[in-house]
Each structure stands twice: as structure tokens, then as C-alpha cells.
Amino acid sequence: MTESPLAGPADENGWLTLPDVALRLDVTISKVHQMIRDRELLAVRRDGVRRIPVDLVANDTVRKHLPGVLNLLTDAGYDDEEAMRWLYEVDDTLPGTPAKALGGDLAREVKRRAQALGF
């Protein structure tokens, strides 16, 4: 059986390390860890380092609907890797992926779809 590729941005430049996120959000690294624990951000290990997709951090804030979507995915039983896979699965009815759609007018639709996974 072939292992599926890891979810998330394919481009190495599509990822931020936790210190990079702390700088971008102008918070301490401890605050970034707290945000991950509180499901405000999603981080996964890539090459032994915890990373966060650039798409999930909008300039100096977290995407508005991301914490709600992450909580809904968690409630539906998704672990971090599964949540990342769901966020980066190409969807022809969205502009690319749910992660990309979180940055536009379809963010509420992404949240609605995540909510539907729990039923």
C-alpha cells in the first residue's frame, strides 16, 4: 500500500515555522503554542519541525473563521493531519481548497461544510 502524500501546501515556501508565525502576529512563541492548543491555529510536523501554512495566517492575524472550522473538525473526530488534509483537499466548488476559501467570500460556506461533517 502506498502512503498518501502529506497534506498542506506543496511548496516549501507555503509554510511558516512557529517563530515565523510569532513574528508575523507580533506575539510571543508561547502565545503561538497557546493558540495551537486552543485550536486557533493548526500546526503539523514537517521534516521534524512544527509548521503552519501561510494561507492560515492573514498578514498579522489568523484567518477569521479558522478557529471555528478547526473546532468543528475536531468535534467531527479529525486529528491535526486529517484536518490539514481536509483544508487542502481541492474542491471544484470552491476557489481551490477550503484553506484558500477561508480568505474570501466563501469562508462561511467552508465553516458550514465543516459543521456538516459532524452529522
TrEMBL record:
Domain Rv2175c C-terminal: 64-118
Pfam families per UniProt: Rv2175c_C, Rv2175c_wHTH
Gene Ontology MF terms: DNA binding
InterPro entries in alphabetical order: Rv2175c_C, Rv2175c_wHTH
Domain DNA-binding protein Rv2175c wHTH: 14-56
Name of protein: Uncharacterized protein
Organism of this sequence: Micromonospora pisi
